[in-house]
Each structure stands twice: as C-alpha cells, then as structure tokens.
Amino acid sequence: MRATAFRYRPPVSPVAAATVEIGKVAISVRLSFDGDLYACRRQPGVVERMEAEALDLLSKGLFVSGIDTPVASVTAAAGHRFAQESAVFRPPGSWVYRGTCWVGAGRNGLTLTGLLGYCLEVRAKWAMRAGECGPPETATEWCELFGTQLASIGGVVLRRASVLSLGTPP
To answer: What global pTM score does this model have?
Structure first.
C-alpha cells in the first residue's frame, strides 16, 4: 500500500484559542506553533486535505491551566508533550509563555511526528470599568489585579482557530 508523506508547517497565526469572561476580567488565550512536522498518511490523499486533517489532530483537546502562575501548563488529548522554557510579562495585560512541544500523534491513518516551538499568550483586561485602578504596569500588579479571577478558572479548553492554509478546502 502506498503512503503519502509531506512536511507540515502549522500556520503562524494561532492554531487554537479561547476567550473567557469571569467577574470583572476578560481573558483571551492563544496558542501558536512554529516549526515543521512530518506527516504521513497510509492512504494517498490530496496534500491540502492532509494539512487540514493535520491541523485538526494538532489542535485536538488542547487544555491550558495555571494561567495565574508563571508556569502555565498545556496538555493535549493527542498526547503532545509541552515543556515551557520562558514566561515574559508584557504590560499592561499579557503573559507570553514559550517552549517546545514534542508531537507523536495519529488518527484515521494520519501520523504526525516532530518537535515544534510553541507560544502561549494569555491576555487579561477589565470587562467592566475598574474604578480608579489603571492598567497594570508590572507583573506583580497584573497578578494582584487578575490573579484571583484567573485562579478561579482552573483551566481553559482551547478550540481550533479557523485558520487553514491557502488552497485547503473548508
């Protein structure tokens, strides 16, 4: 049986995202990947369709927790392994986590393998007027203003962003 294989590069824009509003805080979480994966399908197929299936597999069951801490945890139903390497506060309301993601997943005859870089961006802002509070200028102020609400979330399930590469059928 002939197989189709190709290098797959996830889109630069977010692969998965979520927004949550809790109390006075609106939170958006975006996850993007950088790098190449090796994709192989047992049944030959159109490469564009394989790209769409690869994006589905890469974004399946993504879950982020610990967004109120400097060490956010990312997991995936497909078994990707995430290792955070850095966390940087970007005033006034964002934490950006970067690391690597080992991918070794398969579904319906499609297999993805490789090592990707990932970027997880967590943004928090006031959903309503914050009274006399201004936007946070430091990581400490950010944690003081948003930490309690973020801790009460526990975790966020990310959904696949509606981004497909050019030429990919909907």
So the answer is: 0.80
